[in-house]
Structure formats: structure tokens, C-alpha cells
């Protein structure tokens, strides 16, 4: 292998890493940051949907979990990561 071939290989590899970062890693980090901010802003009474599709209202906020009221007599405890999004009224 000549020096030009090795240099070309390094340039292609660097371009591949840059494209991978721009199209996969960077948008995912941005999305995770937005989701974390949304979770930090959730309060009692907010309506949410879980990643499993369960709709409910936050009844209690704990350190790592939420108690979600799904009907008048039923509350289910979910990890904060399991909340997909907040329902805007």
C-alpha cells in the first residue's frame, strides 16, 4: 500500500465518522435533552402518555418515579423514563 492509499483510506474513514455523527448521534442527543427537560418540568396534575400508550394524570412525583392515576380508583407507578410525552390541553 502506498502513502496515497493510506491517506485516502483515513479521509474516507473520517468522513464516514463525521456523517455518522451528524445524522445519528447529534439528533439523538438533542432529542434526549429535550425529553429530559420535559420530564423535569412535569408536575402533579399534568396529563401524560407512557411509552406503553397508557394515558393518565400524574398523582404524585417521586425521585425516580411518577404515580399516574389512570382512573378514579387506580394509580400505577412508572419510572420517569417511561413517560413518552405530556398531553397539552
Please give a structural write-up.
It is a single-pass membrane protein. This is Protein translocase subunit yajC. Its main location: membrane. Keywords: Cell membrane, Membrane, Protein transport, Translocation, Transmembrane, Transmembrane helix, Transport. There is one protein chain. The protein has two domains: 1-40; 43-89, Roll (SH3 type barrels). 43% of the residues lie in helices and 31% in strands. It has one helix and five strands, in the order H-E-E-E-E-E. It has a five-stranded antiparallel beta sheet, covered by helices on one side. The longest helix has 38 residues, at 3-40. The mean pLDDT is 94.
What is the topology?
Blueprint (H helix, E strand, L loop, with lengths): L2 H38 L6 E4 L4 E7 L3 E7 L2 E6 L3 E4 L3
Antiparallel strand pairs: 1-2, 1-5, 2-3, 3-4
What CATH architecture of the largest domain do you see?
Roll
Quaternary structure of the protein? single chain
Average pLDDT, to the nearest integer?
A: 94
Q: Are there runs of 5+ residues with pLDDT below 50, and where?
A: none
Strand order of the largest sheet: 4-3-2-1-5
**Helical content class:** 40-55%
How many domain modules? Answer: 2
State the order of secondary-structure elements, H for helix, E for strand.
Answer: HEEEEE
N→C terminal distance: 64 Å
Main sheet summary: 5 strands, antiparallel
Protein name: Protein translocase subunit yajC
Membrane topology: Single-pass membrane protein
InterPro entries: Preprotein_translocase_YajC
Keywords: Cell membrane, Membrane, Protein transport, Translocation, Transmembrane, Transmembrane helix, Transport
Amino acid at each position: 500500500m502506498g502513502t496515497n492509499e493510506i491517506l485516502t483510506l483515513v479521509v474516507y474513514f473520517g468522513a464516514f465518522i463525521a456523517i455518522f455523527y451528524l445524522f445519528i448521534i447529534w439528533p439523538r442527543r438533542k432529542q434526549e435533552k429535550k425529553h429530559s427537560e420535559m420530564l423535569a418540568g412535569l408536575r402533579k396534575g399534568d396529563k401524560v402518555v407512557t411509552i406503553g400508550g397508557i394515558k393518565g394524570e400524574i398523582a404524585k412525583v417521586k425521585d425516580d418515579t411518577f404515580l399516574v392515576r389512570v382512573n378514579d380508583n387506580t394509580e400505577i407507578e412508572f419510572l420517569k423514563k417511561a413517560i413518552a410525552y405530556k398531553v397539552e390541553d
